[in-house]
Amino acid sequence: MLAVHVHLPSGKSCRCILSAESSVLELKLEVQRSFRCRCVRLAFQGQQLELPCTLRELGVSDGDGVDAVVQPARLASTAGAFAVYVAGGAALTWGRPGYGGDSSKVQDQLTRLRRIQGTSEAFAAILDDGSVVTWGHPDYGGDSSQVRDQLVGVRQIQAADNAFAAILGDGSVVTWGFPQRGGDSRQVQHQLVRVQQIQATNASFAAILEDGSVVTWGDRDYGGDSSQVRDQLVRVQQIQSSWGAFAAILDDGSVVTWGVPECGGDSRRVQEPAGACAADSSDECRFCGHLGRRLCCGLGQNERWRRLQRGSTAAGAGPADPSDRGSVCCNPGQQLSGHVGRS
């Protein structure tokens, strides 16, 4: 039997008594019981311990010390399944098998996870080495075999309803899944260079390039066609999406929208003419103008907004609260992200 001393960064420690033939998983479960926590990463002599190995195979001897780090669990979901995982660790899935709830065929590959994303019926996991593992419904992105050789050095993955888009380390993009709904980006592939960020509606993708321009593809009706607003999409800072539309914030604080009108793709009703908002020296007020005026100023209640900015109160009102001031006019992206679409 081996006595293994496990240490947390806080200085807490425990001693685990196991056989040399015990697996890393058995050690991990013992550590979790001792520290009363669920998600732990273990390292021995600077190397992360892999679950399939035994303590003997890893060279762990009686009296050796093992380092442990407690990490929060993360969740990803499809329309019918969940995946729980820890960054740098493995994943556990459950739910409808065809929706990604059964990962048994790729379970041995799901180690050293960095991030998991889900379409409506499939999952895609980025590993620490930048490779990607997929499972679930093949037509919804669960089969990435045709692009497997391209999925190297993946930095980020975004998911639509049944397609994935991956940003590689060099800023190029690889897509797979249902072709007409974002899984085929060949028509715009030459434009997808130095991509910084990708967002997705139900059936299309929008990518912000390094120069602030935007490239879209997928279902034309769901935001995949931005040709009508292309000239306005310059110096874009952030994009958010709803189910069927996109909204982009420009560097002057104005907002450009496109996609299904009923999903937010038509913002003309709340757009202000240029110069309609009074100038203000506050940096925060620079977002006030065009659509920003209505979002920040409470549908045109300018005087109340100015008083809140100064920390004063309206007649009969209580003291201004700093958190209230922040909610009246905050960073444009923060303000929009809770109303326009998912992050």
UniProtKB/TrEMBL annotation:
Region (Disordered): 310-343
Ubiquitin-like domain sequence ranges: 2-71
Protein's recorded name: Ubiquitin-like domain-containing protein
Lineage: Eukaryota, Sar, Alveolata, Dinophyceae, Suessiales
